[in-house]
TrEMBL record:
Pfam family, one: 4HBT
Keywords recorded for this protein, A-Z: Hydrolase
Keyword Hydrolase on entry: yes
GO biological process, one term: acyl-CoA metabolic process
Assigned protein family: Belongs to the acyl coenzyme A hydrolase family.
CDD domains per the UniProt record, alphabetical: BFIT_BACH
One function term, GO molecular function aspect: long-chain fatty acyl-CoA hydrolase activity
Organism taxonomic ancestry: Bacteria, Pseudomonadati, Pseudomonadota, Alphaproteobacteria, Acetobacterales
Name used for this protein in its record: Acyl-CoA thioesterase YciA
Any one GO CC term of the record: cytosol
Species: Acidiphilium rubrum
């Protein structure tokens, strides 16, 4: 996914989009990192859930970087790109990009590697069956 041009968003559709609201901000008026991580978790799990064909749980977040602040009213787009599929786990590169409401310019604001585990109804890891229909 990530383009070499740091100002060019990935050439794919975002997994989710959200508007950062006042309730998501800290006392400085910037958006909480925890809110951004939650959006990234939602975006990454949207991709992982398709691949796992069922229930998943987030087991790890690695290399989390907060690159630039997000402001109230910004549009936040979360992009996800598959890194690898293990026996029961799925690694996904996840990036969030911001766009000010009055601008067409997008800037990368966060990046991380999320690991999700396919789980059964009891919450135990279950093997992922990779077929032609879940890696599109
Ligand atoms: C997800 C969970 C069921 C995994 O259980 P577990 O006992 O660690 O399972 P395993 O040791 O068999 O590991 C399962 C897979 O996760 C991977 N994994 C486990 N911990 C990991 C970590 N910290 N980082 C990266 N991968 C990890 C293992 O390598 C394995 O991958 P593979 O099968 O593809 O080789 C358990 O850790 C759990 O319930 N965690 C809480 C999840 C949660 O509440 N998340 C927040 C809300 S979604």
């Amino acid at each position: 996914m990530p383009s070499d041009d740091p100002e060019a968003p990935p050439p794919t559709h975002p997994m989710i989009r959200a508007i950062a609201m006042p309730a998501d901000a800290n006392a400085n008026g910037d958006i909480f990192g925890g809110w951004l991580m939650a959006q990234m978790d939602l975006g990454g799990s949207n991709l992982a859930g398709r691949i796992a064909h069922g229930r998943i749980a987030t087991v790890a977040v690695d290399a989390m970087s907060f690159i630039r602040p997000v402001k109230i009213g910004d549009e936040v787009s979360v992009y996800a790109d598959l890194v690898s599929v293990g026996r029961t786990s799925i690694k996904v590169n996840v990036e969030a990009w911001r766009r000010a409401r009055d601008s067409e310019n997008e800037r990368r604001v966060t990046k991380a590697v999320f690991t999700f585990v396919a789980i059964d109804s009891e919450g135990r890891p279950r093997p992922i069956v990779v077929g032609s229909d879940n890696l599109r």
